[in-house]
Every structure is written in C-alpha cells, then in structure tokens.
Automatic annotation (TrEMBL):
UniProt keyword terms in alphabetical order: Exocytosis, Protein transport, Transport
Pfam families the record matches: Sec8_C, Sec8_N
Family recorded in the similarity comment: Belongs to the SEC8 family.
Ranges where the Exocyst complex component Sec8 middle helical bundle domain occurs: 281-461
Compositional bias per record (Polar residues), positions renumbered to this chain: 249-259
BP GO annotations: chemical synaptic transmission; Golgi to plasma membrane transport; protein targeting to membrane; protein transport; vesicle docking involved in exocytosis; vesicle tethering involved in exocytosis
Function comment: Component of the exocyst complex involved in the docking of exocytic vesicles with fusion sites on the plasma membrane.
InterPro entries (alphabetical): Sec8/EXOC4, Sec8_exocyst_N, Sec8_M
Biased composition (Basic and acidic residues): 35-48
UniProt entry tagged with the keyword Protein transport: yes
Stated name of the protein: Exocyst complex component Sec8
Disordered: region residues: 28-48, 246-272, 677-697
Length: 981
C-alpha cells in the first residue's frame, strides 16, 4: 500500500489557483505577431503547466486515503439503495395483493367494526347510568353542606345528560323525574337562602346589638357601617376578584361528560369558585350571595328570581319591622319602663320608638347594600349567560323602603284616626284678642272674627294624608302588612308604644336624616323630594300643626278665662319644680308651659321653627294685653272720675323716671341680676346686711320728695287700695310677670339669629336653624314689656304703702288736729295709727307670701323715714298740744316703730328722730335754742320754726312778738353753726 500523502504543515499556503493566467496566455499567443513572442509565451505556459502538474501530484498524494474511504462508502450506500428499492417493490406488490384480498371480504369486516362500535357505546352508556345513579346521593351531600354551586353544576350536568343520550332509556324515567323535582326544590332553596342573606343575615348583627341593649346613642353613631367596612376589607381578595369576574359558560350537550365529571368533584374553570373544604360557606355573605346568583343562572331561573325578589321585597321589609318590634318589646328596656313608679311617660314612649326606628334604619341600610351587591351579580350573570331578564333598580328598593316606613308612621302617628278628623281652625293669633279683658275691665268686650290657621286646598302634592289612607285601604297589599305569605290579611298591631300624633316630635330629626340618605341615594334635587319626605311634610302641615295650634289656643283660653286662672299656685312640689320661692299665677305658668312646649317643638321640628316662633310672639302679645287688662282691673276703680293715687303718679313719666333713679331702685335692679344667676343655679335667696346710715341716706331723698308732693293736698279714701287681696293680687302679678319675662328673655337668648333661615343647617346646640332677626327682636321686645309691667306693679306697691301712710297720718285728713285736753285721755295710740299698723301688718303678710324678700324689703325699706317725715311735718297742722298730747304722739310713734321693726326686723332710727322732735315740746323755746347752741341742730330750720309756732299756739297767753324773736335767734344760731339738717 502506498503511504498516504502527508498534509502540508499548518501555516503553508499554496498559490491561489486561478484560470486567469491561462486565459491571458492564450489571448497573448493569439494576438502575438512574432515567433519570439510566441515562444516566450509557450515557455511560460509550459512552466506553469509543470507547476500545476506538480501541484496536482502533491494533492493526490495528500488526499489519497480520504478519496479511498469516500469511494468505499459510496459503494456501500449504492448497495443499500438498490436493496431498499427491491424491498419497496416487494411491499407494493404485497399491498396490491392485500387490497385484492380485502376487497373480496369487505362485508364481513364492516360487520365486525360496527359490532365493536356498538359495544363501546354501550359501555359508555352504562358508565353514565352509573354516574346518574350516584347523583341524588352526592346532591344531597352538597345541599346538606350548603355547597350550592357544586350541587347546581352536578344537577345541571345530570339533567343535560338525562335529556340527551339517555333520553330514550325508559328505566331512567323515574330518575329524570326525581332530578326535575330536585331542580324545583333547589330553585326554591336558593331563593330562600338569597332572601335570608339579604334580609336576615345582613341585619342579624344589628338585632344582636339591640338585644344586648346597645342603646340609641350607639345606633346614632352607626357602628354597623364601620363593622361592615372592616368585614369587607378583611375578605379573601381572591374570592372578591372571582366575585367581580363572571365568565364561565354553561355546560352543553357537546361537553356532557366533561361537565358531569367536573360536577362530580373536579374543579371547574370560572370566576365564582366554591371551597368545599370551608367550615362555614356563609362566612362571606357577599360571596355566598354571588354563588346563589350563579346557581340561579345555571338553572336558567334568573327571570323568576328577579320577579320573586321584586314581589317579596315589601313583605320581607315588613317582616324586619315585625322582628325588630318584637325584639324591643321583649328587651330589657321594655321591662324597665313597664315597672310602675319608675321613669316618666314621655321617656317610656320616646326611647323604645327611637330605638325601633334607629334599628330599622340601620337594617334597611344593610338591606340596601345587600340588594346593591345582588344587582351587580344579577347584571353580570345576565350578560354572561345572555339571559333575557329585566332587572329591578335600587330606586325600586328605596321606594319599597319608603312605602314600608309610611305604613309604620301611619300606626305610630295615629294617622288613621287623626287624618279623618277636621278640627276647627284656631285663631291665628295675628292680633291680640280683646275679649280677655272682659274679666278685668268695665267695658263691653269685642270679639274678633276667627280665621283658619292653615289651608291646603291647593296643595301641589298629589297625595295628601287622606288620599294616601284611602289608597292603602283600596290596595290589597296593605292588608298583608306585617304578615308572611299564607297568613290571613290581618294587620299585626303590636307596637312598642301607644300611637300618638306627638310621637313626631322626637322622631322627626332621625327621620329627616334617613330621608336625606334616601334622597342622596336617589339623586333627588331640592325641588323634588322623595315620597317619604312629601308624606311627612303633608302630615306635619295638614294634621299635626293644625291640631297642635288648636290645642295651644284652647290651653291659652283655659289659662286666661278659667275661674282659677288668676290664682297663685302654692303647692310646694310645684314651686320646687319651677325653681321659685313664691307662688305664681296659674295663667302665667300655663302660658309659660305652652311657650316651653313650642320651644321643644322648634327643636323637634327645626324646619318649622320660624312658624312656631311666630305663634309664640302672637301668644305673648295676646297674653300681654290680658295681663295689662288684669293690672288695669286692679288699679282702676269702678268710677272713671276716681283714681288710685299711686297708679296715677306712675303715669307721669317724670315721676316714674325720678323713682327709678333713686338709689333704692337701682340697688334693687343690681340684686335682680344676682338673683337671676341664683335662680339658674337653684340657690336660696339671701339678703345682705347694710348699715343704718346707708339705709338712711338712700331713703331720705325719697321721703322728702313724697312729703313735699303729698303732704299738702292729702290723700282721700278712694285714692288708696284698701283691699289687701288686691295688693296681694298685684304682688302675685308682679312676681309672675318678672319670672315670665326672665323665662322669655332666656328663651330668646338661646335662639340663633340670621338673615336667611336654613332648615337643613343646624346652627345651635338645640338644633334650631337660624331665625329672622326681626322675629327674635320682637320676642326680646315682648320680654321687655312683660318686665316693664312687673316693674310697674312693684312701683305701685312701693308707692301705695307710702300713700296709705299719708292717708292715715296727716291731721288734715284724719281729724288729728288737736292733741290737748280731753282728746288725749286714752292711753292707747290713736285709732288711725292702730289702723295704719294693722294695714301695714296685713300688707306685710301679703307681700311676704307673694313677693321675694328683696322686693318686700324695697317696699317697706325707708318707710320709717317717710312716717317720721310725715309726723314731723304734721306739727304745722296741729292746733294745740300739751303734755298729754306729747305723750300721745310718742305712743303713736312707738306703736308705729314697733310695727315697722316687726316688719323690717331692724330698729327704725328715723322714728326715734321723730320722737325726739316731739319731745322738744316739753321744753321752752329758750331751752331749745340753748340745746342748739350746745349740741348743734338736730332738725332743719323749718322743723324748728314749726315747733316754735306750735309751742306758742299751745300757750294760754301766747305773745306773738316773742315768736318772732325766737325765730330770729334761731336763724342767727343756725347761721353761726353753719349746719342744716
């Protein structure tokens, strides 16, 4: 064997083989002109040929082994290809032979193939029949565990299978009938579960809190919404995503076996999944309701389900009210309020009804939320399965809620009884009625024409209360309220409190808050309220306001026209309840209660606050006229030509202004402000001690002014109020008017003021909206007028006591001109003095029982200075006086001093001053002048002059020349001393 050529070392490159050189040589040879040139080219060509030949030899020797191997492999492949061609030719010949043989036995083979297909189909049917036989047991198991989605998928797949390939199997007729029955039962069960979760399961937490006695405050804070939000946020996010994405198709006849296998336990592809390992399938209520809707869609029952939900909505809502009512009636609150002697009747009626409404409102909110979730699932299920169904809307839910609440309010507001009543329209209190003055004035009373308070003949609202009740009577559904299906149409009248139109006063604000929620949910505009809002507005306007206005009118008429209307209440418990220490007039207390009741109505019905304020102002105007008539009836005598001196004085603005400028009056007003604060704090009234000098300086000026005005003309008997009962009535009127004015001022101070009232914006703590400034100012002005009447009564009493002192003590009017001889034999005080003492004691008893201590003090304080001034001034009217007359006058002064001391509980130093004055008459004019020079003047110059004149008149041989000398010396001495008293 020849050795294979060695490969050239790596890195050595052969010259590049090209054909360009040969072609170039050929062209050169063909184009050459000389032989030399041709020879050169041939030599060159030969050299190149030799090089190529040498290179070829080298390549052959180099690749000889590879070429040998290639040739060997080519020979083998050629042999195999030849063999394969021969085998293919043999196979083609065999196939032709088989074809001929099969063609000859075609019918026999076809018969065998058909028998195999039949046997395979029979085996499949037997397997499906076995699966159908297992469906009832598995379906029962799923239903017991409330795995409704698996149960529905299993049932639908079984029904599809039974109505498909196994439809003609007579042995499965009972199985198919049983499955159809179970389908109906499952549909009813699904609807029952869905209704339970919408109306019962979603509200059971609210009822549980109510059962535990959570109270109204917890319900007002709406903890159920916060708890619902926490539950929603804590739910499984996968389940929530699955709930929001519905895309699984219904099983059909082409995938019967696949759907049945999936229903028998294999998981299905879809958005609503059901965990069969869950302990409580109902833990997530929203997801559970989504499963129920999906099951209804699988059963092709969406239209029936929607219609059932719409039909049973009102019945279920009424059932919620019935359950809540029973819960509150059987709760701990009802037991507490039912115990005799505990709690007030208003609280016993108010708290259970408030709790009922708040609990119902919260449950209705949860029901609306549940309906919203169900509607979303129904909409997606209808789109997914292409169901032809018309869904209800949330507006339908809120409409049913409003209808149910209207029925509830019809019971508790007693509308069925009040709507049929048409009470006589009361007076509008637009002008003060003058007929009340007939009880006090001596004139023929005039009556005003009564005008109706409200007229709603042209109301824009289509259904008023009466038409609404007629519609409810005609409506057959109204007869089934509070009753479930299958029960007789009898209304369950179990209520948590007695029906009463005044129940609206404490449920109005919670109702309006819930109505605002409804209108916000419905998107109502301010000009188009919801039906419940219109119903409530019609009731308040057409029924409640009219009836209450009539009640107020009757109460005011009873308070002012009854026989005991102007008698004071003296019951201690009643006075303690009012926080007063002195009796008040029955009429004042009754009117104040009416005002307080209207104030409560302003808080309870803030939308009608301005209307109630106008009623209050009209009532106050009417009562002001009545009280002024009562005052005139006391101070005006039967005869028009006679007058009461004290009241006539107060008509003079100058005198009235003077008396109110005196220190004792200004000090009384300061005490009044302090007393008002004590009244708010329920403290006892106290008096502050003052020095005698302070009292003397405060009352001296008043005594001088009164003496200068009344001391000359005197006071007749017809010019005084001699009847103590009249003075007591005047005192009671003063006390009542002051208390009433304070109450009105306090009421007005708490009213919010504004230019534009807004019934939906609460501007103060009581919830009353802003009221017009003019109306509140009118109320303030009325309070001022009542206070002025009280001040007038007190000033009349103050002056009346002093006027009576002038009447009894002035000698010009009571025949006390002589204090000498046999006139003074009696050792008793003068009868007029005794009568004055008796009158003062009677007045004091009347004032103490009718007026506060500070007012009684104001009436009697300074009276000693006035009496002393009257007695000292009376010296100029005495004709003669001797030692017995001086003693008589001292006894009179002592009797009056003792009487005033018992009244004021302080020694009347001013009467000591008067007694010292009359003791001057024991002295001679010279002795009096010497005392003035030694001790200074104790009396005024006029009083000394009157004393000198009386002494000279009492002398048997009076020397009128000496009197001038004494008076001249008196003037000189007083001028030297430089002091006048």
């Amino acid at each position: 064997m020849s050795t294979p050529p060695t490969k050239p070392p790596r890195g050595i490159k052969h010259p590049k083989e090209t054909s360009g050189l040969l072609m170039s040589v050929i062209r050169t040879l063909s184009a050459s002109e000389s032989n030399e040139q041709r020879d050169r080219e041939k030599a060159k060509l030969e050299r190149e040929y030799k090089k190529s030949d040498q290179r070829l030899d080298e390549l052959v020797s180099l690749h000889d082994q590879d070429l040998t191997q290639v040739m060997q492999l080519f020979a083998k492949l050629s042999a195999r290809v030849t063999l394969s061609r021969e085998k293919i030719h043999a196979v083609k010949e065999n196939l032709q032979a088989c074809k001929m043989l099969l063609h000859c036995r075609r019918d026999e083979l076809k018969k065998l193939w058909l028998e195999g297909v039949e046997h395979k189909h029979v085996l499949q049917l037997l397997e499906e029949i076995d699966q159908l036989r297992e469906v009832p047991a598995k379906l029962t198991s799923f239903l017991n565990k409330k795995h409704y989605l698996h149960a529905t998928q299993l049932l639908v797949s079984a029904l599809t299978l039974g109505e498909g390939g196994l439809e003609g199997v007579e042995a499965l007729r009972e199985v198919r009938a049983d499955l159809q029955s179970k389908k109906q039962q499952l549909h009813m069960k699904l609807m029952e579960e869905l209704s339970h979760h919408i109306y019962t399961h979603s509200t059971q937490e609210v009822l549980s809190l109510c059962r535990q006695g959570s109270g109204r405050e917890n319900l007002l804070n709406s903890p159920f919404q916060r708890a619902g939000e926490l539950r929603n946020s804590a739910r499984n996010p996968k389940a929530r995503r699955a709930l929001l994405d519905v895309s699984s198709p219904l099983p059909n006849s082409q995938s019967t076996r696949t759907g049945l296998s999936a229903a028998l336990g294999q998981p299905t592809e879809g958005d609503v999944s059901e965990d069969i390992d869950a302990v409580d399938p109902e833990a997530d209520s929203e997801h559970f309701m989504a499963i129920l809707v999906e099951c209804l869609a699988l059963l092709n029952k969406l239209p029936d389900a929607v219609e059932t939900l719409k039909v049973e909505m009102q019945t279920e809502l009424l059932a919620i009210i019935s359950r809540t009512t029973k819960q509150i009636r059987d709760g701990p609150m009802s037991i507490t309020l039912a115990q005799p002697g505990q709690g007030d009747p208003a609280a016993a009626r108010q708290q259970p009804l408030l709790e009922l409404l708040q609990t119902i409102f919260e449950q209705f909110r949860h029901v609306a939320t549940a309906h919203s979730a169900v509607l979303q699932r129904l909409s997606r299920a209808a789109d997914k399965y292409h169901a032809d169904v018309r869904l209800y809307e949330m507006a339908d839910v809120w409409s049913k809620i409003q209808a149910v609440l209207q029925l509830l309010l019809t019971d508790y507001l007693d509308i069925q009884n009040t709507a049929g009543d048409t009470p006589q329209a009361p007076t509008a209190f637009t002008e003060p009625t003058s007929d009340m003055s007939m009880y006090f004035a001596r004139r023929k009373p005039t009556r005003q024409k009564r005008t109706p308070l409200f007229k709603f003949d042209y109301s824009s609202h289509a259904h008023n209360i009466n038409s609404y009740l007629k519609d409810q009577i005609r409506d057959g559904s109204a007869a089934k309220e509070y009753q479930g299906t299958g029960k007789p149409p009898v209304r369950d009248k179990q209520l948590v409190c007695a029906p009463d139109p005044r129940n609206i006063t404490f449920i109005f604000i919670p109702l309006m808050r819930f109505i605002e929620e409804i209108e916000h949910a419905l998107g109502c505009t301010p000009g188009s309220p919801c039906t419940l809002n219109a119903f409530l507005a019609d009731y308040v306007k057409e029924v409640f306001l009219g009836r209450h206005h009539l009640m107020v009118q009757r109460a005011i008429e009873t308070a002012t026209k009854a026989t005991d209307a102007w008698r004071a209440t003296t019951a201690p418990e009643f006075m303690q309840q009012l926080g007063v220490s002195r009796p008040l007039l029955q009429s004042t207390v009754t009117v104040e209660r009416c005002i307080r009741d209207l104030h409560d109505l302003m808080q309870a019905l803030p939308m009608y606050a301005e209307h109630f304020l106008s009623i209050i102002c009209n009532i106050l105007r009417s009562y002001r006229e009545t009280c002024q008539a009562a005052y005139r009836g006391i101070v005006q005598p039967d005869s028009e030509d006679k007058r009461i001196c004290s009241a006539a004085w107060l008509k003079d603005e100058d005198i009235s202004r003077f008396i109110k400028s005196l220190p004792n009056w200004t000090d009384l007003q300061k005490q009044k402000a302090t007393h008002a604060r004590r009244r708010l704090l329920r403290r006892e009234e106290t008096t502050e001690e003052e020095s005698p000098e302070d009292i003397r300086q405060r009352n001296l000026r008043e005594a001088e002014i009164l003496a200068s005005n009344l001391g000359e003309g005197g006071v007749s008997a017809h010019e005084i109020l001699s009847d103590t009962s009249q003075l007591r009535g005047l005192a009671q009127l003063q006390e009542s008017m002051e208390w009433f004015a304070c109450s009105v001022q306090l009421f007005a101070s708490h009213l919010p003021r504004g230019d534009v009232p807004s019934p939906h914006v609460q501007t103060n703590e009581a919830g009353i909206p802003a009221l017009p400034e003019s109306s509140v100012q009118a109320l303030d002005q009325l309070a001022v007028e009542f206070e002025e009447l009280a001040n007038t009564c007190l000033l009349v009493l103050h002056l009346e006591v002093r006027v009576q002192c002038f009447h009894y003590l002035l000698p010009r009017t009571n025949n006390l001109g002589r204090f000498a001889g046999s006139v003074i034999d009696s050792q008793e005080p003068d009868p007029k003095v005794l009568e004055l003492s008796r009158v003062l004691v009677g007045i004091d008893e009347a004032m103490n029982s009718s007026l506060q201590l500070r007012k009684s003090k104001y009436i009697f304080e300074g009276l000693g200075h006035l009496i002393a001034k009257i007695l000292i001034t009376s010296a100029q009217y005495i004709e003669r006086i001797d030692e017995g007359g001086i003693q008589k006058m001292c006894r009179n002064i002592f009797a009056l001093q003792q009487t005033l001391t018992n009244i004021t509980m302080a020694r009347e130093i001013a009467l000591d001053h008067a007694r010292h004055y009359f003791e001057l008459f024991y002295l001679t004019p010279e002795e009096i002048l010497n005392n003035v020079m030694e001790k200074g003047p104790q009396f005024s110059e006029l009083e000394y002059m009157n004393a000198f004149q009386l002494i000279h008149r009492s002398m048997p041989d009076a020397d009128y020349g000496a009197i001038n000398i004494h008076l001249s010396r008196l003037s000189d001495i007083l001028g030297e001393v430089g002091v006048t008293v």
